[in-house]
Design goal:
CATH topology of the largest domain: Alpha-lytic protease prodomain-like
Membrane topology: Multi-pass membrane protein
Subcellular location: Membrane
Keywords: Membrane, Transmembrane, Transmembrane helix, Transport
Organism: Pedobacter mendelii
Radius of gyration: 26 Å
Largest sheet: 3 strands, mixed
CATH superfamily of the largest domain: Cation efflux protein transmembrane domain
Order of helices and strands: HHHHHHHHEEHEH
Strand content: 5-15%
Protein name: Cation transporter
CATH class of the largest domain: Mainly Alpha
Structural class: mainly alpha
Number of strands: 3
Number of domains: 2
Length: about 300
């Protein structure tokens, strides 16, 4: 998560400065799309603050009310961020664009907008490069999309998506602003605002989907489940692994629950020893597993009774 912090702080600094300059430029030039971009950057700034807050809360130690810790705080605040991108970013930009298209205003001193967009592109581009580099370190050779789907740390891919949407949004605004200025079509400025809003809505749905899955208790992949099945099945006292359930408590903490059929000749002491041995070995082989709950079953003895 320390790596994610680096990309969050860089995005926070860039978006705060950019939001201020966009609002100033939009006020001077009557540009709807520039105001929309300012809203976008302001929302991104607040999103980074919420992510940092979520990261801080997720590190709180376990207590009697939360025996498995507060790791899911990160997933909750990530979901809130996706909602803010949708509501404050996407819908406000779309409404601003519709108002402008109904009552288009000619751009004044568009040179300021071009200057701000160019500087914003440089800053957002630098922030995106940092986010890409940090996320690239966690991919382990798999494709980008698969890495995003498999990632259990939303603070990493949230910043990546935000910065990517910001750069793409700037390109949209820049291109349509040139057409609006050169062909005297002020309504294109409103269209740019609507397109930026739709882009943010699309991004918010993707982020909400991933954050919701983690918040609702997403567990190990089928590949990891198969590895656990094989590992447990190799134990000398195990007949079979009947069932397994897992859930991410945080990006680096998993709760694993197993129902295991042990050999029927084992007594209570033997089973207890086997459970302790399996729990420790599982934590060593699967480092993300911090909590192991094993329920024993001896089907042979139950059938005899």
């Amino acid at each position: 998560m320390a790596k994610a912090n680096k990309s969050i702080y860089s995005a926070l600094a860039a978006n705060l400065l950019i939001a201020i300059t966009k609002f100033i430029a939009g006020a001077f030039t009557n540009s709807s799309s520039m105001i929309a971009e300012g809203i976008h950057s302001a929302v991104d700034t607040s999103n980074q603050l919420l992510l940092l807050y979520g990261l801080k809360r997720s590190k709180k130690p376990a207590d009697k009310y939360h025996p498995f810790g507060y790791g899911k705080e990160l997933y909750f605040w990530s979901f809130i961020v996706s909602i803010m991108i949708f509501g404050l970013g996407g819908l406000l930009s779309i409404s601003q664009g519709i108002i402008n298209m109904r009552n288009p205003e000619e751009l004044q001193n568009p040179g300021w907008n071009y200057l701000v967009l160019t500087l914003s592109f440089v800053f957002e581009g630098a922030s995106l490069i940092i986010a890409i580099k940090e996320f690239n370190k966690t991919r382990n050779g798999i494709s980008w999309w698969k890495a995003i789907i498999k990632s259990k740390d939303p603070s990493g891919f949230l910043v990546l998506f935000e910065d990517g949407a910001a750069v793409l949004g700037l390109l949209i605004v820049f291109i349509l602003m040139i057409f609006s200025h050169n062909f005297n079509m002020p309504s294109l400025d409103g269209l740019a605002s609507i397109l930026v809003g739709l882009l943010l809505v699309f991004v918010s749905f993707i982020l909400a989907r991933e954050s919701r899955s983690l918040l609702m208790g997403e567990g190990f992949t089928l590949e990891t489940q198969q590895k656990i099945l094989t590992f447990v099945g190799q134990d000398k006292d195990v007949v079979s692994l009947i069932s397994q359930m897992s859930t991410y408590q945080s990006p680096k903490e998993v709760l694993l629950m197993l129902i295991i059929e042990f050999k029927e000749e084992l007594n209570t002491k033997d089973i207890t020893s086997a459970i302790e041995r399996l729990s420790e070995n599982i934590k060593i082989v699967f480092p993300l597993v911090k909590f192991v709950i094993i329920q024993p079953q001896q089907i042979g003895k139950i059938q005899k009774i």
